[in-house]
Design brief:
Layout lengths: L24 H14 L4 E4 L4 E7 L7 E7 L7 E5 L2 E10 L4 E3 L5 H12 L3 E8 L4 E6 H10 L4 E3 H7 L1 E3 L9 H9 L3
Parallel strand pairs: 5-7
Antiparallel strand pairs: 1-4, 2-3, 4-5, 6-9, 7-8, 8-10
């Protein structure tokens, strides 16, 4: 085929970065929970971080700036709400590690909260995304507690997630369909 002006070399881009292709786990979960509410499937919300504002600059009403604030009490887990008449509560975390999830990412008061929800028969779990592996898992609270009660490691190895947790496949809508897994556990329609 003859091109006008001869054959032109097509430039190729060899250093394409695929970092941060998707949204963060928190954004994915917020979109998922909005979707669940929109279709009247569940009412699950991100808990606000409890802070106390101590210094504010008011140059004008639309330009108010918080200058100083602090956390009033330790937060529990990230999300809670209702699904099929049951209380649901979970923590969401991301890690860049390919081999394990660092337990330093979960604070002692959060572990205590997870234990309390589990003991009171609420649905409690962790959603952990291994960003480098592009894998997202749902680990039930009972399996999480079993691991930390019976191991001295400072991290949960990926093979524990592969054996005990549920892989959540990315979807278009809802983005992180974790209730599909919960339905299989508690019995869904």
């Amino acid at each position: 085929m003859k091109y006008p002006g001869g054959i032109k070399k097509i430039k190729t881009i060899s250093n394409i970065s695929y970092k941060n292709r998707g949204m963060s786990l928190e954004n994915d979960l917020n979109d998922t929970n909005d979707y669940y509410r929109d279709i009247d499937k569940a009412y699950i919300y991100k808990k606000p971080t409890p802070i106390k504002i101590t210094k504010v600059d008011y140059p004008s009403r639309d330009k108010t700036v918080i200058k100083e604030a602090f956390f009033t009490i330790p937060s529990t887990t990230d999300y809670n709400g209702l699904y099929k008449g049951k209380y649901i509560d979970f923590e969401a975390k991301e890690t860049k590690s390919k081999s394990s999830f660092p337990l330093a990412n979960i604070h002692p008061h959060q572990i205590e909260h997870i234990r309390n929800i589990f003991n009171h028969e609420g649905i409690v779990f962790l959603i952990v995304r291994f960003t480098t592996l592009n894998k997202t898992f749902l680990l039930l609270g009972k399996d999480f507690l079993e691991y930390i009660d019976n191991n001295t490691r400072k991290s949960i190895p990926i093979n524990y997630f592969e054996d005990k947790a549920y892989l959540i496949k990315d979807n278009y809508n809802p983005r992180v369909d974790y209730l599909k897994i919960i339905d299989n556990i508690i019995g869904g329609k």
